[in-house]
Amino acid sequence: MALVPFALDAYLPAFPDIARDLGVPINEVGLTLSVYVFVLAAGQLVGGPLSDRFGRRPVVFAGLAVFIIGSLMVTTATSLPAMMGWRALQAFGGGWVAVSVPAIVRDQTSGRETARLFSLISLIMFIAPAIAPTVGTALMAVLGWHGIFEFLALYAMLVAVLLQTLLFPRAPVGTGRREPLAALVTNYRHVLGHGTVMMLVALQAVAFSVLLIYLTHAPFLLQNWLGLDNRAFSMVFAVNVAAMAGVSLLNRRLLHRLEPYQILRVSVPLQLTAVLALLAIIVTDAPRWLVIPGLMALIGTMGAIAPNVQASVMQFFRELGGTAAAVLGAVQFAGGGVLSALSALIVQGHAERVALAMLACACAASLLVWPVAARLRQAGPVA
Question: N or C: which end of the chain has fewer CB within 10 A?
Fold first, then answer.
């Protein structure tokens, strides 16, 4: 699960070198990031129902193969359009891999155990992009920016070997449902027509957007507004990851006694409270260093929101786990990408606007969580 988000951020430190080699302004290199996010969403939409139709194993390995080819071809790019095209191929294959993981979890677990495992997966998803720039910097120092993508290809090969030798022989999953290909569209209709699931998908998208908006504006907020140097900036990221890890571990323990919807009823309002506190610190004369614990609280809540939303969605679709995961992942990344991009248009160097953009998303999540929790309570314990 770390493969796809790691590939998202590992090459960020190489932007200046890539811009120089391709002969383009550095801001245009950011287009390769946008292409990756949106094609990743498209890849999940295709790969999810295919994994339901043909089984998890062939789809995962096909996705890894495409990811490896895309990663290696990026190193041959001599123009920005070529790099964008190969990044798109890399993301498309990565989408097939990413969407299969929740489906495999649903194949092998049930009930609160599913939510506990999703808690661990969510932690990995957020740790991977947090450490990726540091790893990318080290690789670039030794191998240049091309070495980052060569490493990603090697990493994907290692994942394939581990899956083949350790996971699939011990836990064969997803033999596939031999139904007509036309049924793939019908499967999407089943998922998209499920009111409770679509409310959960919307909840995940807006809650995740709070995090993406922060990540988009973190350099401005922490370095320009707060005045942190590069070392302190990295330390703040580290404590944010630590906060999320702590909440994720706490969530796993709470799931022994509570249902996912019960945790969501607390964690989503806590996210809103943390954003309000952050806004208050920014617009008042409060010491600016208080932003750091405010961000820890804000980021930490995702350690409880994301896994419980995933588990709640997947409980409704044991046979269509891939399709359900595709809808959730695609909307999460595409919706979050759009909202974070829109926030970039309105922030324009104002710290309070960053907090206001996050506040809008957190408010939407808080409005959704109560009717969602009521429906989940009516549906009964996760199965």
Answer: C
Q: Select from 1.20.1090.10, 1.10.260.40, 1.10.1040.10, 1.20.1250.20 the CATH code of 1-174.
A: 1.20.1250.20
Using alpha carbons, list the distances in angstroms from residue 382 to 192, 269, 318, 375: 20, 22, 12, 12
Average of pLDDT values for 339-348? 73
Task: Say which DSSP state 193 is in.
Answer: T
pLDDT tens-digit readout, 163-205: 999 888 776 555 555 556 666 677 788 888 888 989 999 999 9
Give the range with max mean pLDDT: 14-23, 62-71, 214-223: 62-71
CA distance 48 to 44: 6
Pick the CATH number of 181-378 from 3.30.1340.30, 3.40.50.720, 1.20.1440.130, 1.20.1250.20: 1.20.1250.20
Distance CA 56, CA 47 (A): 10
* Numbered ranges of CATH 1.20.1250.20 in the chain: 1-174, 181-378
Tokens 């549906």 belong to 379
CB of 220 closer than 8 Å to CB of 352 = no
